[in-house]
Amino acid sequence: MVKNIAIVSLSSGTIGEAFAAHEVEIGIRRLKEYGLNVIMMPHAQKGIEYVKNHPEDRAKDLLQAFSDDSIEMILCAIGGDDTYRLLPYLFEHKELQKALNKKIFLGFSDTTVNHLMLHKLGLNTFYGQSFLADICEMDHEMLPYTATYFEELIQTGKIAKIEPSDVWYEERTDWSPAAVGTSRIAHPNEGFLLLQGSPVFQGKILGGCLEVLYDIFDNSRYADSVSMCEKYELFPPKEDWAGKILLLETCEEQPVPQLYRKMVQTLKKTGIFEVISGIICGKPMDELYFEEYKKILVEEVADPTLPIVANVNIGHATPRCIIPFGVDAVVDANRQQITFSYEDK
């Protein structure tokens, strides 16, 4: 059972802004109701501009959270778009390696970069939820499906299996204090969709937000992202992907199909589609371009024997489960579940 939880802003400093204060208040209250002692790391609430301009302080917070033996879990505040800038402060002199202790690390979106950093150092992490996006949900309670997985993680330190949510929710358009206590619009959810290949496949899961993975190989967003990610060898080598299951999900920018195709093609050039055991895809936010994405992925993979399962409740669409990286997983589209087994059982 987790007792001390640290909140870090490794990408965006949104939780330090006045416009988010009502959400942060809700989130801290909820964590305390779970019996958790909430530790805001020193720079987590410094605001968007400060956090953006001080990657070294973001890195310091992460190092401190890993070094502190009393902290059992690190929860990312939110995603963003420039977490790669922490690389020199965490890897130039093996800073992260020296600070690393085994503990729960949870985040998604641009936090994909942190997951790859920690994978590089051999730490298994958890993908799929964040403080602001999930714990701070403005309805009277957390979204029930989301809460189920968060509760399992803080109580057991693991996720045993995931199953589809019965519903999915439209994204909010009003994040003001006036929206506190209002419910999201819900729709029936289809469940896991087998696009091709065997309905049952296995491997350790790794991946994350497609746009973030694309930025590792493309300078459109930041001029130095490619060179920095190359220097610190952020993207795992092809042999590391052998037998793994690739997780892909798209962000709130909801990329048009042409860009989605380009991003998938960029990943394909790494050769990982030749060695992975399958692909699982998160539901796109508001299901925008969902049909196009499924079609494009099948076309670009161009191997009907590679299993692809779509519509997993992970990533930027709500509600969200939590997927453990680096542990043995069995995807079973027939039984509509993904099960996980841990070596230390």
Quick tags:
345 residues, Rossmann fold, Glucose Oxidase, domain 1, 2 domains, 31% helix, 20% strand, Class_I_gatase-like, Peptidase_S66_N
Question: What is the topological layout?
Answer:
Elements: E1 4-8, H1 21-33, E2 37-40, H2 48-53, H3 55-67, E3 73-76, H4 87-91, H5 95-99, E4 104-107, H6 112-120, E5 126-127, H7 131-135, H8 144-156, E6 161-162, E7 167-169, E8 186-188, E9 193-196, E10 200-209, H9 210-215, H10 225-231, E11 245-249, H11 257-268, E12 278-282, H12 290-301, E13 308-312, E14 323-324, E15 328-332, E16 337-341
Helix pairs in contact: 11-12
Strand order of the largest sheet: 6-16-15-10-11-12-13-9
Poorly predicted tracts of residues = none
Give me the secondary-structure category.
alpha/beta
- H and E string: EHEHHEHHEHEHHEEEEEHHEHEHEEEE
Query: If you average the pLDDT, what whole number results?
Result: 97
Number of domains: 2
Q: Write down the overall geometry.
A: globular
GO molecular function, one term: hydrolase activity
Pfam family, one: Peptidase_S66
Family: Belongs to the peptidase S66 family.
Domain LD-carboxypeptidase N-terminal: 5-128
Please describe what this structure looks like:
The chain is an alpha/beta fold and 345 residues long. The chain has helices at residues 21-33, 48-53, 55-67, 87-91, 95-99, 112-120, 131-135, 144-156, 210-215, 225-231, 257-268, 290-301, and strands at residues 4-8, 37-40, 73-76, 104-107, 126-127, 161-162, 167-169, 186-188, 193-196, 200-209, 245-249, 278-282, 308-312, 323-324, 328-332, 337-341. The strands form three sheets. It has an eight-stranded mixed beta sheet. The longest helix is centred in the first third of the chain and has 13 residues, at 21-33. The protein starts with a strand and ends with a strand.
